[in-house]
């Protein structure tokens, strides 16, 4: 079956800007199911595991600091090819160049000039999704 699950995070900028509802509405409008949902104040240990692949990169420290700066909303999202589909819906990493029509392209560039403030996270492969869902949900 091609029904998958992915981890979506509404990052602290999305929560602070009151965009959680709009972002979740776009996921639902696409036809995906939100099967679990929680608000989390992530600690460093969780974020270090979540972003282990980026440890040592120049943006790692600012990224982790940003992600622990406020609550995030974690969603377990299910649907047909949802891993790839949500990445497409989110748009490319940098909100400045993310295509119009995507979450980051439409909503992503605010007062912040930092690439890490790009509203959402989505798992990038089935292996990442399984690993990340286990971190954020039981
Ligand atoms: P994505 O979130 O699109 O999967 P990623 O996994 O490569 O992107 O990076 C994780 C996050 O780190 C990303 O959402 C924002 C931040 N980031 C990535 N590249 C960056 C860069 N060159 N400068 C600043 N932040 C960056
Ligand atoms: Mg990524």
The count of helical stretches stands at 7
What's the structural domain tally? 1
Mean pLDDT: 95
Largest sheet: 4 strands, antiparallel
Keywords: ATP-binding, Kinase, Magnesium, Metal-binding, Nucleotide metabolism, Nucleotide-binding, Transferase
InterPro entries: NDK-like_dom, NDK-like_dom_sf, Nucleoside_diP_kinase, Nucleoside_diP_kinase_AS
Cofactor: Mg(2+)
Catalytic activity: a 2'-deoxyribonucleoside 5'-diphosphate + ATP = a 2'-deoxyribonucleoside 5'-triphosphate + ADP
Question: What does it look like?
Answer:
- This protein is α+β, with helices and mostly antiparallel strands and 138 residues long.
- It has a single domain, classed as Nucleoside diphosphate kinase-like domain (Alpha-Beta Plaits, 2-Layer Sandwich), CATH 3.30.70.
- 41% of the residues lie in helices and 20% in strands.
- It has helices spanning 12-16, 20-30, 44-50, 60-67, 82-90, 103-107, 126-136, and strands at residues 3-10, 33-40, 72-80, 120-122.
- A four-stranded antiparallel sheet has the order 2-3-1-4, with helices on both faces.
- The model has no long low-confidence stretch (mean pLDDT 95).
- Bound molecules: 2'-deoxyadenosine-5'-diphosphate and magnesium ion.
- Residues 54, 59, 63, 93, 115-116, 118, 121, 124 line the site of 2'-deoxyadenosine-5'-diphosphate.
- 2'-deoxyadenosine-5'-diphosphate is lined by residues 54, 59, 63, 93, 115-116, 118, 121, 124.
């Amino acid at each position: 079956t091609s029904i998958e699950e992915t981890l979506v995070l509404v990052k602290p900028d999305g929560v602070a800007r009151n965009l959680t509802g709009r972002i979740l509405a776009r996921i639902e409008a696409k036809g995906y199911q939100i099967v679990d949902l929680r608000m989390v104040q992530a600690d460093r240990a969780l974020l270090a595991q979540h972003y282990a692949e980026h440890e040592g990169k120049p943006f790692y420290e600012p990224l982790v600091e940003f992600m622990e700066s406020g609550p995030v909303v974690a969603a377990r999202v299910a649907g047909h090819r949802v891993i790839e589909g949500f990445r497409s819906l989110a748009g490319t990493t940098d909100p400045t160049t993310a295509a119009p029509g995507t979450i980051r392209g439409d909503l992503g560039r605010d007062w912040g000039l930092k690439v890490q403030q790009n509203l959402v996270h989505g798992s990038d492969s089935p292996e990442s999704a399984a690993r990340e869902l286990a971190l954020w949900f039981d």
